[in-house]
Design brief:
This protein has ten helices and eleven strands. It has 253 residues and is an alpha/beta fold. It has two domains: 88 residues, 60s Ribosomal Protein L30, Chain: A, CATH 3.30.1330.30; 158 residues, SPOUT methyltransferase, trefoil knot domain (Alpha/beta knot, 3-Layer(aba) Sandwich), CATH 3.40.1280.10.
Length: 253
């Protein structure tokens, strides 16, 4: 089937999924780009694929529609569309089972940049983190930019949105998961901290860091040593440094 009108219902649905509320209500999100679509694991349900003439002979193992270049551009969130996207169904994860695992957990408090979030998700997947937990006012991990920035990592690490972080931290304590918040207002250096086998690292907002109430409830505050003249680090970079240090320690015990 060739879609040639921007008024087609399928086109309207794809465009509507640029809005978080519609993604939440429908339990769907958009993955754009050839590599990202090709890398979707078989364990995830693809509602359909839409592509231009360039990809029409490729078998994507899902219902596939063709679209004209003009129509595809209407659906795309990028300036230079590759000509392929997939609409994918979100997966539900079992929180209790995730918390029973040993390893690294990442908690995000009020992060606003989807590019930063995508980079954090990519790091978490690279170091086999057990789950990522997003506060209620954190940017949507299934937004187009976050998904693209993650380079497909959204499929490889469990994601939990709209979390009440105080309730979550109580659950962490119940499962003997120690919480460490990245903060500047402490003398405890990341490199000098002995991390538990089950550790949650908390990363805050780009401008204000981790919220005061969350800091009060964390088991320990830690900061990354910065001997140079920068006063702070990008949130995604700080998270990557912390995750690597925890991973390194856990794996040399």
């Amino acid at each position: 089937m060739l879609i040639e009108s921007v008024h087609n219902n399928i086109v309207k649905q794809v465009v509507s999924l640029q809005d978080k509320q519609n993604r939440d209500n429908n339990g769907l999100f958009v993955v754009e780009g050839y590599k990202q679509v090709s890398d979707i694991p078989e364990t995830w349900d693809i509602e359909y694929v839409i592509c231009t003439e360039k990809y029409k002979d490729i078998n994507f193992k899902a219902k596939t529609y063709s679209a004209s270049e003009a129509v595809f551009k209407k659906m795309s969130e990028t300036k230079t569309p590759q000509g392929i996207l997939a609409v994918v169904k979100k997966q539900k994860r079992d929180l209790e089972n995730i918390l029973k695992e040993k390893g690294i957990f990442v908690v995000i408090d009020s992060l606003q940049d989807p590019g930063n979030l995508g980079s954090i998700i990519r790091t978490a997947a690279a170091y086999n983190c057990k789950g990522i937990f997003l506060s209620k006012n954190t940017v949507d991990c299934f937004s187009g930019k976050a998904v693209r920035s993650s380079m497909g990592a959204v499929f490889n690490v469990p994601l939990f949105q709209e979390c009440d972080l105080i309730v979550l931290m109580t659950a962490f304590k119940k499962h003997n998961i120690k919480t460490y918040a990245l903060a500047l207002q402490t003398d405890n250096l990341l490199a000098n901290t002995a991390f538990a086998d089950s550790t949650a690292v908390i990363v805050g907002n780009e401008a204000d860091g981790v919220g005061e109430n969350i800091l009060k409830n964390a088991d320990k505050l830690v900061k990354i040593e910065m001997p140079g003249k920068a006063q702070s680090l990008n949130a995604a970079i700080a998270c990557s440094i912390a995750v690597y240090e925890i991973f390194r320690q856990i794996n040399i015990k």
